[in-house]
Amino acid sequence: MMDKMQVKPSIYSLKYSDLKEWLEQQGEKSFRAAQIFDWLYKKRAASFDEMTNLPKSLKEALAEHFDLTTLKTIVKQTSKDGTMKFLFELHDGYSIETVLMRHNYGNSVCVTTQVGCRIGCTFCASTLGGLKRNLSAGEIVAQVIKVQQILDEIGERVSHVVIMGIGEPFDNYEEMMSFLKIINDEKGLNIGARHITVSTSGIIPKIYQFADENLQINLAISLHAPNTELRTKLMPINKAFKLPDLMKAVKYYIDKTGRRISFEYGLFGGVNDQVEHALELAELIKDLKCHVNLIPVNYVPERNYVRTSKNQIFRFERTLKEQGINVTIRREHGHDIDAACGQLRAKERKIETR
């Protein structure tokens, strides 16, 4: 699997400032950076040779130093609701998932930041087989580019990005931050900061660091339980980063940024979906500027959890609303395909998830 190691970095890993610096080192004019970014992110060039307004010597230098990361599409699934799920192969043979979700407010892409995951949540297929490696910023950017190329065919664009795919984004913090700056750059994909959401399972030191970045990007916390005991059962990370300390970090983030935080709460039948759980959750977050996103979980064959009934989902939502909590039920996407995070990779690439 590791025979085809990539030796050149992806040009998609370069922020605009990085590219300008590289060009200056090559003795090139800095205005070439704008031309290259235009080819990469506006024209979506598939090779350096397509960059016709660049001198031949510069195109050769680019090809010598960088790869235009190309993700090979192994599987593409399309749901009745328009959701598309992709399994992409990387240069070293590993694979990752990316999802396009169609909303009435635009097209949202869910990207992956790691090959596998070390967090070990007991309900998630992404963690099967553990963590293999981190993705480079360019490999994350390339996921958005691949989806955008498909949308180009119908005259649409990626308007929103969520970092909620395979992996824990804050475990790959520096590459994730480069990715965010590249797709937010008006010379890049120009995706508005408020249209980007990062989700974490609760890496507390990185929550403080992210708050201090002073960005307009949204932050979501995968909570899934209203108390320490139950959260530890569902999410072993709670042993290292305990719920009370997580709530302190969340409060710091809200106070520092002034932004509302989202709590992702997956509902698992008979586990965390009872009225008493809703009341306990409301008590936990009642003083925070926040929103709860209830997630009817997709069934994962490798896990033992079952879906909460619709009546119970509505009962849980109603209980939270009665307690003054801002809550919505996430619209389901791709229910008729391998929609659960990591599920397609686990099914198609069993060698990676052992």
Automatic annotation (TrEMBL):
UniProt: S-adenosyl-L-methionine binding residues: 167-168, 199, 222-224, 298
Gene3D superfamilies linked: 1.10.150.530, Aldolase class I
Reactions listed under catalytic activity: adenosine(37) in tRNA + 2 reduced [2Fe-2S]-[ferredoxin] + 2 S-adenosyl-L-methionine = 2-methyladenosine(37) in tRNA + 5'-deoxyadenosine + L-methionine + 2 oxidized [2Fe-2S]-[ferredoxin] + S-adenosyl-L-homocysteine; adenosine(2503) in 23S rRNA + 2 reduced [2Fe-2S]-[ferredoxin] + 2 S-adenosyl-L-methionine = 2-methyladenosine(2503) in 23S rRNA + 5'-deoxyadenosine + L-methionine + 2 oxidized [2Fe-2S]-[ferredoxin] + S-adenosyl-L-homocysteine
Residues noted as binding [4Fe-4S] cluster in the record, renumbered to the chain: 117, 121, 124
CDD domains: Radical_SAM (cd01335)
UniProt superkingdom: Bacteria
GO CC annotation: cytoplasm
Signal listed as a keyword: no
Cofactor binding: number and manner: Binds 1 [4Fe-4S] cluster. The cluster is coordinated with 3 cysteines and an exchangeable S-adenosyl-L-methionine.
Location of this chain's protein in the cell: Cytoplasm
Radical SAM core domain: residues covered: 103-336
GO biological process, one term: rRNA base methylation
Molecular function GO terms recorded: 4 iron, 4 sulfur cluster binding; metal ion binding; rRNA (adenine(2503)-C2-)-methyltransferase activity; rRNA binding; tRNA (adenine(37)-C2)-methyltransferase activity; tRNA binding
Other noteworthy facts: Reaction proceeds by a ping-pong mechanism involving intermediate methylation of a conserved cysteine residue.
Function: Specifically methylates position 2 of adenine 2503 in 23S rRNA and position 2 of adenine 37 in tRNAs.
Family: Belongs to the radical SAM superfamily. RlmN family.
Descriptive protein name: Probable dual-specificity RNA methyltransferase RlmN
Organism of provenance: Aeribacillus pallidus
Gene name in the database record: rlmN
